Amino acid sequence: MAGPDSRDHSAKATVVFASALVLRLALFHFPALSNILAGQVEISTPITSFKRLSEGVFLFKNGVPPYDGGVFHQSPLLLGLFYPIIASPFLVKLLYTLSDLAIGYMLLQITGIKDQDTAKEKKIRQYGDKIEDPGMDGLTVATLYLFNPFTIASCLGKSTILYSNLAVVAGIWMGMRRNKSLAMFNIALATYLSLYPAMLAIPVFLMLTRDVNDYSQVKRTVVQCASLFAASLVSLFLLSFVLVDTWDFFGSVYGTILAVSDLTPNLGLFWYFFIEMFDQFRPFFLMVFQIHVVIFAIPISIKLRHHPLFASFLLCTIMGAFKGYPSIGDASLYLGLLPLSSEIFKYMRYTFLIVNLFLYSSLLAPIFWYLWIYVGSGNANFFYAIGLVYGIGEIILMIDSTFAAMRRDFEALSPPETS
Amino acid sequence: MGLLRRLSKAQRRLIFGRFVLGWMPKLSYVMVMVSFVWLLALPHQNYSKETYVSENALMPGSATVRYEWNDYQAAEKYRDVVQRISNLPSFERAEALQNEFSQLGLKSATQNYTLHTSIDSRHGVNTYAVFYAPRSDGTEALVLSAPWTSRKQETNTNAIAMLLALGKVFKLSDGEAEGLQAWLRAYHGIQESAKDRFDETLRIRSGAIQAALNLDFPGMGDYNALGIFFEGVNGQLPNLDMINTVAAITRNGGIAPAELTLHDELEPTTDNMTKNYINSLKKMLHMMKYQAAGMPTGNHGLYLKYKIDAITLYGFDKPGWPSQRYSLFRLGALIESTVRSLNNLLEHLHQSFFFYLLSGVKRYTSIGLYMPPVIILGVSFIFQALSLWGLSSDLPLDLDAIVESRKAAAVALPYSRRRRNFRVPATVISMSFIAGWASFLLLTTSFGFPGETLLLKLVASVGVCIALVFPAVTSAHVRNRILKEKRAKTPSSASASAELIPAPDWILLKTFILALSALVVTTLSALNFSLAVSIGVIIVLPYMAFRPSSWMVFSGIQVAALIAISPAGLLLAASSWYGMYPSLALSWVLEGYEVIGSWLLPTICGVYLPLNLATIIMVLLPVS
């Protein structure tokens, strides 16, 4: 029985991945579409824009220090990655497409590992004393990621957030597979690319130690993981130094992320505040805003220590909502991670509202941008208001999904009495 | 304890469920009524305000006008010249004009352009001249322009003579809108290597264009009224101060008094309240008609695409109207005074409103008053959708029984929900969007086979839609029957599983349709209010009220109504209303898309048609 079943499954997977590949390459075939998307501020932020990356590569090729101009704020290794292939548009498109497919594949694998884990769990009984329905299978999770319009738009817009997302998902996958060194390396890589994913080191550590009851062993793993993380990060920095032969990239990459010095409008909450703010207040509010992003990492990891996958989804959503330069690439990451916890969906109460908020903001953001920038009849308030609506959508998603996860825990602890 | 808490929760849900299922749909109909009444109240005197010049730098009519008797005589002479050359082919005509400009000592040039649409290809020559003001830095410019053919398809003689006589940038465009479009594209250096258009690059330029006046004064006679056209491409509007300036200059006792009105309609003012209201309503409907069509009412509309505020002044003669007639003399003063006051601007017009509805040339309704009815319409859609969303899942479950029998403990609440089956609605929605875009592609590409006409393409695209609806409906019915038989074969042992049968597909499909309609109406209202209102008013009642019915006649009536409000039905209705051939109306819409870049056709095909198709399918789905 297993033979034909699994063959059927792999055939389905082939269809999904092949159609995702073909769809992306076909859409890449219309350069106008790709260019329009690359120009949208919702997709390309100052730290993820492909245009700026090309500028950096161009400067680097011509012997000009790429970080001098104040245009390029991306990691040196991305520079190194694109240096050999940027001359060929096809290779660039292929790299983006394959990276997206790789994320889809890893999500599929993660679901598989998670299903094995939940097989050991205590079962929740439901109405008529049936066992709880199984969650989505891996292929559905991968399909939801690969055909999410946000994912496709971000991929076509060549936002380099994709590589950070790739590293995050790879880290989670390796965490689920209990591979300490690769998990920590990937999280370090994601941290190296966009800094905030450092928070994910905690849930990934929880994944690595999820069945370990021996306290001393846990302690040992903490030390191992911390040193692995630090070592990977330091070696990535050293590698970067070797590549660009200067430490300037620290200020230009991480300085920009932390100090939000480029105030190009985006979907986030920072730019409008810091445009309006008097200079003497800037450092204080900058600290408040940045601490606000990272402060959730520990309490969430403590409360959701038995659900590290859900905790990492939640932390990614927090990053996507509260960081300085969010884009829909971040949304594609957390919306991709959400179906990994599909068993909580039936407890969610505001699905309709959340879907509508995301729909409205993703339609109205370009419209208000157009009214502000091109037509001149709108103004910055219009666009920022939509950023707020989008933020509210993300926040309600977090609240509702957390409620659902807690509710499911409660249900598991106190099953309904059957009379 | 836990038992009690759950019970009370069940009760709370019951109350909420009753509200959502029982009251929200009724409330949404009330909201629709409120919205309609509000919309009808908008033209009333009490809901509009008197316009005023908001930008202080404009100072309309305060500069001394230098246009004098000898200029008037020159203009009359030019009128004869224009009359003479107007019948020449475009190239020679442009040459002759360029000659006239250079004799005046202005730098002038011509521009060739070609544009291929799916129907025909157009070629023409633009003439333009630049007057460099003596003490300016050349970074800013104003444009006066006139097309060769007027609104009334006559030669725009007076306007062109006027341009020659006034001696900023002048622009004479050949043909209709496409000439000006080519010139503006070239002026702003938009060079697309598209195979469907060719615009020659401009040899002389001035600074960034701040504002533009387009003149439309057909024939050689005098006029007794002056109309303002201001609606641009896709319903964009110029800053209200443009209109206010002209209004201030033409007021009684101003520099150039004239009977100013909106568009080309004149309505007598009376003391009769009802009559005044009807006049205002007419004017507002006219404006909304022009705005919703998304087609500019004159060449000014094209400037708006480039962030240049512009209006068209249109001279016309209404026989029997008691106002004073004016000739080229007063017209010259009017234009000079307007240009002078625009010249006073220190920065781009921004003070006054960009979002307004006009119910008269001096009465406006601002966005704060006209936006709420659309939002209310959107919310009423959402309320209906929300109630159906509830219906599709947990709410119809026997909560009453649970509460009464106090057996709630056996039911963990989330499990008492029915499973939502997204497969059918998602397929129907995505297929209808694909059909919409397919018909769009069908209409806009020319296949090049003989006997290809627009009407044929229209028939083909309707065919595509039918080809979607028919299989969708039949397969849904077949699927439903199979599912029912399956259920009948395995008799439900427990009432529990019987309760978990998913809701019929049409409920979720209708939820999607309503939610998407709300999305379309509200987001569109930010771009083109009039179009959003028209769409909203047309679809709100049918989409909310219609549902599958086991009574065949009733379904038939619903489908007929939906076909009547489908794009094809609306096209037929509009063309018979205006006494046009449907193919002519269609080619007008298509021309708007291909030549001017209006979004009416993409909106209709890409958004309106799919929703309409999905609703037709929804009505025909099995009832349960």
From TrEMBL, chain A:
This protein's GO CC annotations: GPI-anchor transamidase complex
Q: What is its subcellular localisation? A: Endoplasmic reticulum membrane
Record field: transmembrane: 12-30, 77-96, 160-176, 182-209, 221-243, 249-272, 284-302, 308-326, 347-375, 381-399
Pfam name, any one: PIG-U
Please give the superkingdom of this protein's source.
Eukaryota
Keyword flag Repeat: no
GO BP term, pick one: attachment of GPI anchor to protein
Protein name, per record: PIG-U-domain-containing protein
Provide the species name.
Answer: Modicella reniformis
Q: Does the keyword Ubl conjugation apply?
A: no
What keywords does the record list, in alphabetical order?
Endoplasmic reticulum, GPI-anchor biosynthesis, Membrane, Transmembrane, Transmembrane helix
This protein's pathway: Glycolipid biosynthesis; glycosylphosphatidylinositol-anchor biosynthesis
Q: Which family does it belong to?
A: Belongs to the PIGU family.
Query: What topology does the record note for this protein and the membrane?
Result: Multi-pass membrane protein
TrEMBL record, chain B:
Stretches that traverse the bilayer: 20-41, 369-391, 426-449, 455-478, 526-546, 553-579, 599-621
Could you state one GO biological process linked to this protein?
attachment of GPI anchor to protein
InterPro entries given in the database record: Gaa1 (IPR007246)
- Per the UniProt record, one Pfam family is Gaa1
Q: Look up the signal peptide feature and give its range.
A: none
Query: Per the record, GO CC terms?
Result: GPI-anchor transamidase complex
Q: Keywords of this protein's UniProt record, alphabetized? A: Membrane, Transmembrane, Transmembrane helix
Q: Tell me which stretches of the chain form a coiled coil.
A: none
Please give the name of this protein.
Glycosyl phosphatidyl inositol protein transamidase complex subunit
Q: Organism, per UniProt?
A: Modicella reniformis
Primary gene name: GAA1
